[in-house]
């Protein structure tokens, strides 16, 4: 039920909002400007939801919660490799800080039941702390650019592949 509620809140304009820890009285984060709708491609909004939800799922995966990430994609999607890697990592380490932020989505192919998007995601610095040796390693921030392919399965759009 939680993923359904969260996906309702994570509409296209919300996932592109800058990250901040302070919220102003007007509802915008301090110093933020309203979201420029030009950042989003003109396609069926439901076809964007798996990508937006995937980025939200990546953020939850950093805390050890993988169900939401997996619910965005077909089981065979290469995009879920990160869930397996993080799940294995949490057996021996803890992650401190870090977040993923969707910075750009552009349409590459716009089919009726399959679409592909060029997606850019920024990842902040993340500190990995080994549970046994207590050694700390900093994973530097990075920008990730992939082609995300979404397919319509019944009435639902899901990630089917990344390249």
Summarize it.
With 163 residues, the chain is α+β, with helices and mostly antiparallel strands. The chain has helices at 2-9, 12-15, 45-61, 67-70, 81-89, and strands spanning 93-96, 100-110, 114-123, 126-130, 136-139, 142-153, 156-162.
Helix and strand arrangement:
Layout: H1 2-9, H2 12-15, H3 45-61, H4 67-70, H5 81-89, E1 93-96, E2 100-110, E3 114-123, E4 126-130, E5 136-139, E6 142-153, E7 156-162
Antiparallel strand pairs: 1-4, 2-3, 3-6, 4-5, 6-7
Q: What does this molecule look like?
A:
The protein is α+β, with helices and mostly antiparallel strands and 163 residues long. The chain has a single domain, classed as Nuclear Transport Factor 2, Chain: A. 26% of the residues lie in helices and 33% in strands. The protein is built from five helices and seven strands. It has helices at 2-9, 12-15, 45-61, 67-70, 81-89; strands spanning 93-96, 100-110, 114-123, 126-130, 136-139, 142-153, 156-162. The strands form two sheets. The chain has a four-stranded antiparallel beta sheet. A hairpin with a 5-residue loop joins strand 4 and strand 5. The protein is elongated, with a radius of gyration of 16 Å. Mean pLDDT is 82; it is low at 1-35.
Main attributes?
disordered N terminus; 3-stranded antiparallel beta sheet; 163 residues; alpha+beta; 4-stranded antiparallel beta sheet; Nuclear Transport Factor 2, Chain: A; elongated
């Amino acid at each position: 039920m939680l993923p359904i509620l969260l996906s309702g809140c994570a509409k296209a304009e919300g996932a592109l909002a800058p990250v901040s820890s302070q919220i102003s009285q007007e509802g915008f984060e301090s110093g933020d400007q309203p979201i420029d709708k030009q950042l989003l491609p003109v396609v069926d909004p439901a076809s964007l939801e798996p990508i937006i939800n995937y980025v939200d799922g990546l953020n939850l995966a950093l805390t050890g919660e993988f169900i939401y990430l997996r619910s965005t994609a077909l089981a065979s999607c290469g995009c879920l490799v990160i869930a397996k890697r993080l799940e294995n990592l949490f057996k021996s380490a803890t992650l401190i800080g870090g977040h993923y932020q969707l910075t750009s989505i552009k349409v590459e192919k716009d089919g009726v039941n399959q679409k592909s998007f060029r997606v850019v995601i920024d990842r902040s610095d993340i500190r990995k702390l080994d549970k046994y040796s207590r050694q700390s390693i900093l994973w530097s921030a990075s920008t990730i650019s992939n082609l995300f392919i979404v397919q319509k399965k019944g009435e639902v759009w899901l990630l089917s592949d990344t390249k």
